[in-house]
Amino acid sequence: MQIIKGGRAVRSTANGLLQKLRGGSGGTVIWLVLAFVISMVLLFSSWRTIEPGQVAVRVNNITGEQEARTQPGLILCAPFGIHSVYIIDASPQTFVMKGNKNVDALHVEELTVRASDGSNFLFNDTTIIFQVLGASAIEVVRDAGPEGEFRRWMRPFARAILRDEFGRESTISVSNPAKFGEATERARSRLNELLEPHGISVTKIVTPRPRFNEQYESLIEARNEAENQLTVIESELQRSRTDRERTLAEVDRDQNKVIQEKRAGLEAALASALAVQADTRRKADTYRIQTVAQGQAAKSAAERQAEELEGQLAADYEAKRATIDAFKTQPVERVMERLGEKLDGVTIDIQPWADDSTPSRLRVEQTGAVQ
Questions:
Q1: Phi (first) and psi of residue 100, to 5 degrees
Q2: Interatomic CA distance for residues 60 and 42, integer angstroms
Q3: Is residue 3 over pLDDT 70?
Q4: Selection from 55, 73, 72 nearest residue 133 by Cα
């Protein structure tokens, strides 16, 4: 009751004040004040703020002109419905497919896929990161509507395209990380082909390893163990190759050292042999030169001696010939005398014998040595 009475008292006081102001010159001041207040209110209400990560579309409702603003700051919005400003969140958005039911436009149930071989698998937590293209803000407002209505585009497109792309793979290929990544990239490309004309771009798709039934999961685990063992075997093989190459390198190094030592020894022996050969050739050449010189000298001496002997023999021959010629003209006595001189001191045993009773000639034969 006191509150009601207080309110009535305030209203009566205000009414009395208005009546006094309306009377006389005070009414003009009141109207000026009210006009100033209304102008300030309209002025401040005609500006909208664009925060970082936001884009805005200003529509002129009279001319139909549309303008996109991508830079943070203030944007003028004429009052009385002349301009309409739509602000859109252009920061990266996260679309999640997880759980058993839909929560909102960005949180829907998990993704189930039917593989090409007829088996089913699902992804427990699939995340798609997307955002509004600032330069295409007009298309976003035109096709999706104001504020966050563009988020509703993700649910039908993402689920359909992911099911389509992953459904092309078999259970074996989809469990292969390489094939799995190819399917993810194909899905992102197709989503961008469909959503970019509407001003939305998908930047990344994050999907966990697909989940299969228990039997197939056991087989996958067994395969993973086998692949791990294969990786260990390959690592051991690589280590063995490395050890083998190192051992071969060490053997090659040692053998090269031995070869180099042998080569150095052989080269030294060859150098020594070449030196000996050169020295031998030098000695042989010296000996040949000396021998040839000696032979030439001996030949010259022998030729001179032969010439001398030839002259001497010729002289002796002429002397003997002269002697013979002289004997030819001398009497027999002189010849016998000379023969006696020659036979001086020589004893000749003569034994006459006759084989004829009436010898007609004397024949002398030597029967013993001359003394």
A1: -105, 0
A2: 18
A3: no
A4: 55
